[in-house]
Design a protein that fits this description.
The complex is a heterodimer of chains A (about 325) and B (about 220). Chain A contains twelve helices and no strands. By secondary structure, chain A is mainly α. Chain B is built from eight helices and no strands. The longest helix of chain B is centred in the middle third of the chain and has 26 residues, at about 70-95. The chains are: A mainly alpha (about 325), B mainly alpha (about 220).
Amino acid sequence: MNLLDTLLRCVAALVVFLTFPLIIGQTEHKVMAHMQGRLGPMYAGGFHGWAQLVADGVKFAQKEDIVPAGADRRIFQLAPAVSLLPYLFVLLVVPVGPHGFVGQAVDAGIFFVLAVMGVGVIGKLMAGWASANKFSLLGGLRTAAQLMSYELPMVLAAASAAMAAGTLSLTGIVEAFHWWWLPWQAIGAFVFFTAGLAELQRPPFDMPVADSEIIFGAYTEYTGLRFAFFLLSEYAGILVVCALTTVLFLGGWHGPLPDSLGWLWTILKTFALAFVVIWLRVTYPRLREDQLMRFAWTVLVPLALVQLALTGIIKVAISQ
Amino acid sequence: MNILAAAGSLAPATRGFLSPTGAEIVFVLVGLAVLGAAVISVGTRQLVHAALWLVVALGGLAIEFLLLTAEFVAWVQVLIYLGSVVVLVLFGLMLTKAPIGRSPDADSGNRWVALLVALAAAGTLVTLVVDAFRTSWIDLGAGGGSASVTGASLFRNWVLPFEALSVLLLAALIGAIVLSRSRQAAAPKPRAGRLRTGKPVGAAPAAKSPAAQSPSSERES
């Protein structure tokens, strides 16, 4: 792998990182609008308001970048980057198609992905603390509590996929996939996807940014581009969680077309899951904090353990 | 010893120390950064900054592991220490006391004793490591610290320490639960919320007059 190749892969990951979240955001505008019986953005750009998010971006860039007087300046300014960058690194290792169609194959891919995604939360904690605002602090606290509860089922579910494939490499897991994994790993897929949603603080798990209670949680004091970075990190997070669920549980590039079109399947499945994420946002009301914790510890963790046991039993039965 | 055997031999040095490779230079620089971050983390008077400098120090350690080709250990370091331990520390700080700016009471009268203990511990460890390895040279091949090599070594050669550590952690877990429960026994038990679908608020009972039922039947039709 020479320098040019490496550079090309990084640029490709960056382009995906900058465009796909916007596509998901625009889809969210339109899908939510239609589910709620309204139009959504219709004017920006002409055709069905396709340029709405570009216009939003320009708007954010024009706004004044305010740091509250009582805030811890450096940490306040650093937080959006800490929150956003991990998702970029995760996108680098997600396999898109067969035969090395991946930014950078990592030996312990699952561990890398879960580890780096956990770092993003530190950015949200930093934002919540450094804002010198009690609503922000509450949002930060809720974020931390939520993350620590949902990290465990997520890791357990991912471990089940790794056990089934016998490897920690994301590419290896997709290569080992067979169609009958779908029923076998169904519980794990549910747990992983749900815990992923909770880690992104998407509705119905959006207690940390509950706008009717604590304004906008950790992001309350942010304006302009830094606020836009937080929003971008949410949509990049949707992309990452959907892509990971695709890769771990839905077979990635496997599908009834020749291998050369495998990347199409990965993208299709990812966007189908992203649609489900938006759908859930429109459908379910927000969980209360205690319901949130109860759901993680009494539903998701036992389910993940059941899935682990099931995976182990069937794996041993097959190998004999 | 399996890790070392996989990574290279422990043969005496045939290489000089005066022609470092790029990776070695990076290793030393990252090491200095880790040391600096650790010292600031202990010395700063701003509580949350201390926790955040800890992030830098632990993240730098992960990079050191990577440079030593111990990929798996590096990611575990990030997952456990950065993703969980530091988040827990920050959570605890925010729950109790996390003022912005300097905390005047963040200083301890024990600092000279603490410095002495820290220096003694560091001296012991450095002496031990230097004495154990002396001038031996370990050639680091790619994949020498991959998940399969680490796992094989852990579960073939080091099972007993591994299980002993598990028991230790379990004991700590149970101890923490016991400690937190005994304090809670005196306080009134809060009502636990439930995950259930409540009855619709303000719905008319079925046994009312037909006039009260008519709007809902209209909506259904």
